[in-house]
Amino acid sequence: MTHPEYTAASSDSDVRRPLAPDTSRLDDRSARAWTEAMAVRPLGYGRYAVESQSGATYLVSLPRSDCTCPDHEIRGERCKHLRRVAIEVTEGRVPPPGKVRGDCDICTRESFVPESGPAVCGDCWLERGDVATDRETGDTVVVYRLTDETASKRYIDSADCTVADYPKNDGYPTDDPVVEVVYPFSGDAEADLDERPRYAFPYSRLAVRDQMLIE
Ligand SMILES: [Zn+2]
Ligand SMILES: [Zn+2]
Prior knowledge:
Elements: H1 4-7, H2 28-35, E1 39-44, E2 47-51, E3 57-61, E4 66-67, H3 70-73, H4 80-90, E5 99-103, E6 110-114, E7 130-134, E8 140-150, E9 155-156, E10 161-162, E11 177-182, E12 199-202, E13 206-212
The structure holds zinc ion (ZN) (2 copies).
């Protein structure tokens, strides 16, 4: 005999659950950090203005673990403002230190991009050592660095033209960030990336492969 309450499996989406953690298990400062009405405004360089529920605005520095409120300045506590900024960073509501909200130069999605340097999101970012294929020649190249210069601004002295005007680059966006690459299979096989001649490419000319060169 079947028990009626076992006949239908309840789906997960039917279960009511709070979005905030169970604040009864948290200490008072953490609970307040989650539940109080606060507005967090990023100021750059890891600093955030936090307008508290009381209406006062305090300045938090995440890199220095610092807040201008009395709870932190006088009592030396890790106050609710510091905790709230940490929560909002973890939840992706405000940018982490070193990043600002902006449109990615490559995929154009709004994201958190570096405060200084190329405005490129985490998905489109190129790391030193990333392996890519030159779409024009099929050559394998290795990323040396992603720059914040565009193809129409970067000048190639030896060719007496910009990266955008260089032969074979005319089909790629002139505002592409320039990527400096090296050829891993030419010259001295033992030479590391720093010792190899570097070449400037428009970002879109490179098809990045899902692998890295281990130096
Ligand atoms: Zn504080
Ligand atoms: Zn992107």
